[in-house]
Amino acid sequence: MPSSAQRTEGVPSPTVVGGVQPEPRTPDISIIAPLHNERVSLALLLEECRTVLDNPELDWAPLGLPDGQRTPRWEMVFVDDGSNDGSWSLVQSLAADHAEVRGFRLRRNLGKSAALSVGFSHARAPIVFSLDADLQDDPKEIPRMVALLASGFDLVSGWKRKRHDSRARVVASRVFNMVVRRLYGLELHDFNCGFKAYRQEVVRDVRIYGELHRFIPVVAAFKGFHVGEIEVSHRARRFGQSRYGWGRAFRGMMDLLTVLFLTRFDSRPAHFFGLPGAFLFSIGIGCVGYVSYLRLAYGQIFSRHPLLIFGVLCSLAGLQLVTSGFLGEMLAAHLP
Q1: Phi/psi of residue 23, each to 5°?
Q2: Are 182 and 316 within one domain?
Q3: In this predicted structure, what is the pLDDT of residue 4?
Q4: Are 148 and 93 in contact (CB under 8 A)?
Q5: What is the pTM of this model?
Q6: Under 8 Å CB-to-CB from 252, ≥6 apart: which residues?
Q7: Which residue has the higher pLDDT, 298 or 244?
Q8: Which of 62, 50, 30 lies closest to 126, judged by CA?
Q9: Per-residue DSSP letters for 194-235?
Q10: Are residues 238 and 280 both part of a single domain?
Q11: Are residues 186 and 315 in the same domain?
């Protein structure tokens, strides 16, 4: 089984394993399945995808398949995010037995965004799907998502209207989605759903890192892509347990601020740094001016030394922020 390594700028370099394909043809659909310790579900997920994608009775007309081709050519891309339960050995076995399977392994656990980034960079089809490997996403939804994508959208996000998760996770997800809708004005119900369909242009142009996989629709919409949503079925988790926790929620809120900066101030950083900088500088100058007035009018500052120090610090901090904004503008002006 041949092994190769492919580096892509900004993407972690993985260990690679690919199935043997006697006729290397570009697939019509790429399915990206990031995974971490999901060994027991991988073969089942592959079989579910095969059952759907090899079914000629389903409506594949939106793909524009050539005459005589009744089902899409497809590839399954597993990205192992540093599993330690033997998932990688199973991916290697599946790749050896099934020509549609390709596998990539991150050397350590880097998170879902890193795994998706690797999968996106190696997806070969014009239409790319992402779904979780825990069997909660139902591949039977793929034809419906393809049809909506073909109607004029560049990205179709799933909406798990009826969720089979713990109450705490459901509540946290609803709060998160409400906050994101209010901040960005993108009318989606479920930003965090991992089941999505993309045109190849989207996965090439949207760079994700950290925990930014939750905000792919937001970043895509900011870049001018048309984003849609479709209700999808959500199944109860059959194996393992959810890795959702408050630490993950906190990181998500930090990334919320990151995306807010990238989408609103990406091309005008001086507005982001300049306004708080001017505010702090004004406070600092006011404090220093007041202390200076006392010194000139009364010959002493009446124990206002802490106020003087505070004013100087505010002035310096404000000046530094304004300068940072100008430097950001200079960098933005020279970007391609």
Answers
A1: -125, 90
A2: no
A3: 40
A4: no
A5: 0.76
A6: 176, 211, 214
A7: 298
A8: 30
A9: --EEEEHHHHHH----TTGGGGHHHHHHHTT--EEEEE--B-
A10: no
A11: no
